[in-house]
TrEMBL record, chains A, B:
Top-level taxon: Bacteria
InterPro entries given in the database record: KH_dom-like_a/b, OsmC/Ohr_fam, OsmC/Ohr_hydroprdx_reductase, OsmC/Ohrsf
Organism taxonomic ancestry: Bacteria, Bacillati, Actinomycetota, Actinomycetes, Propionibacteriales
Organism of derivation: Actinopolymorpha pittospori
UniProt protein name: OsmC-like protein
PANTHER family found in the cross-reference section: HYDROPEROXIDE REDUCTASE (PTHR35368)
Length: 189, 189
C-alpha cells in the first residue's frame, strides 16, 4: 500500500491538510472568512422556548439547512418557575463554550500532528439571581465566573497539552465572545 | 366561581405571585439566590462533541438531574470540516441568548400583568474566521456583533413593549454575560 502523504493523514478525525485549505482560500480574498450564523426562536409558553438553527453564510455562499435539523427546546427548572422541558438558556451557553474550546483544541492538535485519545471537560458557572430579579443593582445578572476543567490525553507531553489548552482558549470563538464580551444589538421589530 | 386573587392569575403561563416568592425567599438570606450551573462535555471525534447538562445548585439545594435528560450533540458543517451531526458551538451561544432574553421578557411582562400573545426572535452574528485560524492578530476570534430582533405582541402599547425589551436585555443573564464579558477560568485537569 502506498504510504499516505502527510496532508492526507487523518489525525483526531481531521485531515491536517484540510485545515490549511481554508487558510489558502482566505489568502485569495478576505470575504471567504466572513461568516454569519443565524437562529430563530419562538416563545411557546411560560419559560418554554423553541429555537431553530438556520442557514448560515460563509465562504461566499449561503448554506441552506433543513429547518427540521437543529431544533432546541429551552425551559427553566421548577425552582425557576419552569417545567424542565429543556435545558435552560444559561446551560446552553455552557454547552456552546464546552464544544467550542474542545473543537478548537482538536483542530490545533491536528494541525500539529498531535493525536488525542481523550478530551473531556467539566464546566460550571455562578449566577446570583439578585441581578436578574432586579433586587440589587450591585449584582450583575450574568455569570460572575465560569470555570472549565479539561482532561486531555494524547501523544504529546503535558506541557504541550497545556499550551494547546491555552491557545484553544484564546482562539475559540465562544470563549473569546464570553471572556471579552461583544456588541449586542437588540431591537423590537 | 370565586374570582382568582391577583397572585393566582396565570399570565403568559406564569403565576405573577410565583415571581415574588423567590424575592421573598432571597430577602430571608442571600445564599438562596446563589446558583451554580454545571455541564459536562466529551469529545467524540473530529468536530463532534456531546455535552450533558448536569445537576445544578440553587436555593440552598443541589438539584439532581437524570443524566439522560439534556444531551446535546455539537458538530461543524462540512465547510468547517465537520459532518453536521449537531449545530455548531457558536449556534448554541445564539440559542441560549434567544431563550434567555425571551424568558426574561416574559417574566417581566408577567410581573406587570402584561399578557403576551407572541414573542418571536431572529438572531444573527458575524464571525471572521481569520481570528480563530490565527491568520490575523487584528481580527478577534469571537463574534464581532450579534443582532437580535424581537417581534412582540401583547396587551400593552408599543412603547411599553419596547421598554420591556430594553429591560429584558439588561436583566437577561446570557445577554449580560455576552455583552459585558465574564471571567473565564480554563485549566488542564
Amino acid at each position: 500500500m502506498a504510504k499516505s502523504t502527510p496532508t492526507q493523514q487523518v489525525v483526531n478525525g481531521i485531515k491536517p491538510g484540510a485545515l490549511f485549505q481554508p487558510i489558502d482560500a482566505i489568502e485569495q480574498g478576505p470575504d471567504v472568512s466572513r461568516f454569519n450564523f443565524r437562529v430563530e426562536n419562538s416563545w411557546v409558553n411560560g419559560a418554554h422556548n423553541r429555537a431553530t438553527v438556520n442557514e448560515y453564510h460563509g465562504a461566499k455562499t449561503t448554506h441552506r439547512r433543513d429547518k427540521t435539523y437543529f431544533v432546541y427546546d429551552m425551559d427553566e427548572p421548577p425552582v425557576l418557575l419552569g417545567e424542565d422541558r429543556g435545558a435552560g438558556p444559561v446551560d446552553y451557553l455552557l454547552v456552546g463554550l464546552a464544544g467550542c474550546v474542545t473543537t478548537t483544541l482538536v483542530y490545533l492538535a491536528s494541525a500539529r500532528g498531535v493525536s488525542l485519545s481523550r478530551v473531556d471537560a467539566e464546566l460550571d458557572g455562578d449566577i446570583d439571581l439578585r441581578g436578574m430579579l432586579g433586587i440589587s443593582e450591585d449584582v450583575r445578572p450574568g455569570y460572575q465566573v465560569i470555570r472549565m476543567k479539561l482532561m486531555v490525553e494524547g501523544d504529546a507531553p503535558r506541557e504541550e497539552l497545556a499550551e494547546l489548552v491555552r491557545l484553544a482558549t484564546r482562539r475559540s470563538p465562544v470563549a473569546d465572545t464570553i471572556s471579552h464580551g461583544t456588541s449586542l444589538q437588540v431591537s423590537l421589530g
